[in-house]
Write a structure and sequence with these properties.
Strand content: 5-15%
Number of strands: 4
Helix content: 40-55%
Low-confidence stretches: 186-205, 231-236, 242-247, 279-283
Radius of gyration: 49 Å
Shape: rod-shaped
Order of helices and strands: HHHEEHEHEH
Number of helices: 6
Largest sheet: 4 strands, antiparallel
């Protein structure tokens, strides 16, 4: 005979008793899982924030070190820039200078027989005023370098040949003849012609009053203009002074730079005086 269990299922005990479960259990487990995920996310985020702050602090320290290093060599960088500016200035001046020695050499080669030069003045612009015996009025109309030549010739064709030969000098753009007339004779019995219209003195006239040089001329030889670069017109700025431990080194570099600049200026003045004495003997 088979046994029959008459106890209701919810009252049964043992292995075959059904489990008592509900929705609350699943909700509780899900909430715990979500809470665990939130705790892990917060921990990871806090760690990332801490790492970023530490990296930022390291970068700030490195930046401060690099700024201090740059400040320690800033004075030397400034002086290097000043040296470069001065070198550019000298290079610009050398490139913009007019080669008077070459011009005078070529003038000596093209000077024909029967022509003498009493006054020879060379200037790079009409604004340059020199204390010379003669002045040619045509010089004021020429903006670039030019030679003012006053002298004597034996006749008018010789003067014309001299003007043509001057145009063969390298760099000459044009030759302007201001006057070419027979000078006043210095002898009492000689004939007298009209005196030159130039501003030369009577002593200059007497230089052309005897044979064979009887005609006095004055002319201007114009050359290609010389452009002065901007670096040659503006003096280089002095570097800012820096304090701290670099003050002694900075003062030493400043003294050396000033001494070098003074030597360069004196050298340029010497060359200028030499050129003036070549152009104006006895000047």
């Amino acid at each position: 005979m088979r046994s029959v269990n008459l106890i209701p299922p919810e009252e049964q005990r043992g292995d075959r008793a059904p489990m008592r479960t509900g929705v609350f259990t699943y909700v509780l487990i899900g909430g715990l899982a979500v809470l665990l995920l939130l705790v892990v996310a917060v921990a990871l985020t806090s760690k990332q924030i801490s790492d970023k702050k530490s990296e930022k602090a390291n970068l700030q320290r490195e930046l401060a070190q690099e700024q201090a290093r740059a400040q320690s060599v800033a004075s030397f960088t400034s002086f290097a820039n000043v040296e470069q500016n001065r070198a550019n200035t000298l290079t610009g001046l050398a490139q913009s200078r007019f080669d008077w020695s070459r011009v005078l050499h070529e003038l000596s080669l093209v000077l024909p027989d029967g022509v003498s030069i009493n006054t020879l003045t060379g200037t790079v612009s009409p604004d340059v005023q020199l204390d010379t015996q003669g002045q040619v009025d045509l010089r004021s109309s020429i903006s670039g370098p030019a030679l003012e030549v006053i002298g004597c010739a034996k006749d008018q064709p010789t003067v014309a040949a001299f003007v043509a030969s001057l145009e063969d000098i390298d760099g000459v753009t044009r030759v302007g003849l201001e006057s070419s007339e027979k000078a006043q004779s210095s002898s009492s019995g000689g004939s007298t012609s009209s005196t030159p219209t130039s501003s030369s003195s009577s002593d200059d006239n007497s230089d052309c009053g005897t044979a064979p040089l009887l005609y006095k001329y004055s002319l201007v030889v114009a050359f290609d203009s010389v452009t002065t670069p901007a670096a040659a017109t503006a003096p280089p700025a002095a570097p800012p002074s820096t304090g701290g431990t670099q003050s002694g080194q900075t003062n030493q570099v400043t003294d050396n730079s000033q001494a070098q600049q003074t030597a360069e200026v004196n050298s340029v003045k010497t060359k200028a005086h030499t050129a003036v004495h070549k152009l104006i003997p006895g000047g």
